[in-house]
Amino acid sequence: MSQAVRAERASEGREGAPVTVIGLGLMGSALARALVRSGAATTVWNRTPGKADDLAGEGAQVAASLAAAVAASPLLIVCVRDNDTVRELLEPVRETLAGKVLVNLTSLSSAEAREMVGWAAERGATYLDGAIMMTPPGIGTPEAVIFYGGSAEAFEEHAATLRVLGGGTEFLGTDAGIPSLYDVALLGVMWGTFNSFLHATALVGTENIPAVEFVPYITNWLGAVTSFMPTYAAQIDRREFRAVDATLETQLPPIRHLVAESRVRGIDATTPEYIQRLVEAAVAKGHALDSYGRIIDELR
Ligand SMILES: NC(=O)c1ccc[n+]([C@@H]2O[C@H](COP(=O)([O-])OP(=O)(O)OC[C@H]3O[C@@H](n4cnc5c(N)ncnc54)[C@H](OP(=O)(O)O)[C@@H]3O)[C@@H](O)[C@H]2O)c1
Question: How many whole angstroms from 139 Cα to the centroid of ligand 1?
């Protein structure tokens, strides 16, 4: 949106609430662009100034300094490399943070997020932590999931602006550490699934079956696999693991076949060996007739 259009919207009272985006890397730029396009009065700042040029052309206000960027809006969204950078960056402008809502969309640990609540409070600011489950091109789409935790009042006050960044915006509660925990837990599912996909592809590849030919069977199978998860989840919560599909005892021989096939075909067997170890341990403890959900006890 051009500055002229923004000015027109402002004069008509259609301008969105003011917001400042600090950090214009790949993600920060995508966040700022979505806000500008929504009509929000968006101020941006980045350590390396050139990265604001495109956004300026689209209607963002480029702050001359970090202090000016902080002063421009009650809502500050920061998205930089890591949380140490957030703290080092904002410390010199700490006097200007009082009364602001600080939304930290930088990836950090749950412990760091919890510390940031007090860090912000000491500087008079209210803290919201956010975890983005999307890559920059998907920011602003209905599919973009962003988890928030921290001040409920701050989330409520700025929900309309934050929802611009992703249709899957969700407030997880007042514990600021939860969004980053969800983040890594879900990323673990992603990497684990990628590794299984790659392992399966390497396995069938030993028979010269192309990956593109096999991948539809994987994606279809994943649908069936995920359909078991709600049942296991309920069993985990109830601590009752009656097998309604296949017992651990039944699954053990094919798990051993997977290990053997991997070894014979020269494919890394670490992942199937780990599965075998977990299941054998559960069976040895007398859980042979339980469902796969029982394996949670081996992880805890
Ligand atoms: N990209 C994704 O798909 C994705 C998804 C979810 C979450 N995230 C998270 O979003 C955050 C930013 O990621 P990104 O992809 O935008 O990374 P990026 O493209 O590498 O951008 C890094 C940003 O951090 C700034 N920065 C680094 N060190 C700094 C310092 N010492 N002082 C001031 N600014 C500094 C950079 O400023 P300069 O331009 O001056 O170097 C730049 O604005 C990370 O925490 C990342 O984990 C990213």
Answer: 15
Q: Separation of 78 CA from ligand 1 center, angstroms?
A: 10
Ligand 1 atom with the shortest distance to the CA of 106: 45
* pLDDT by 10s per residue, the chain, length 300: 445 444 444 443 335 789 999 999 999 999 999 999 999 999 999 999 899 999 999 999 999 999 999 999 999 999 999 999 999 999 999 999 999 999 999 999 999 999 999 999 999 999 999 999 999 999 999 999 999 999 999 999 999 999 999 999 999 999 999 999 999 999 999 999 999 999 999 999 999 999 999 999 999 999 999 999 999 999 999 999 999 989 999 999 999 999 999 999 999 999 999 999 999 999 999 999 999 999 999 999
Pocket of ligand 1 (CB under 6 A): 23-28, 46-48, 51, 79-82, 85, 89, 106-107, 132, 135-136
Minimum-distance ligand 1 atom for the alpha carbon of 51: 39
**Nearest atom of ligand 1 to the alpha carbon of 107:** 45
> Has this prediction a pTM greater than 0.90?
yes
- Top mutation candidate among 65, 80, 82, 141 for ligand 1, by most atoms within 8 Å of CB: 80
Q: DSSP states of the chain as a string?
A: --HHHHHHHHHTT-PEEEEEEE--SHHHHHHHHHHHHHTEEEEEE-SSGGGGHHHHHHTPEEPSSHHHHHHH-SEEEE--S-HHHHHHHHGGGGGG-TT-EEEE-S---HHHHHHHHHHHHHTT-EEEEEEEES-GGGTTSTT-EEEEEE-HHHHHHHHHHHHTT-TEEEE--S-TTHHHHHHHHHHHHHHHHHHHHHHHHHHHHTTT--HHHHHHHHHHHHHHHHHTHHHHHHHHHHT--B-SS--HHHHHHHHHHHHHHHHHTT---HHHHHHHHHHHHHHHTT-TTB-GGGGHHHH-
Q: What residue owns the CA closest to ligand 1's atom 42?
A: 25
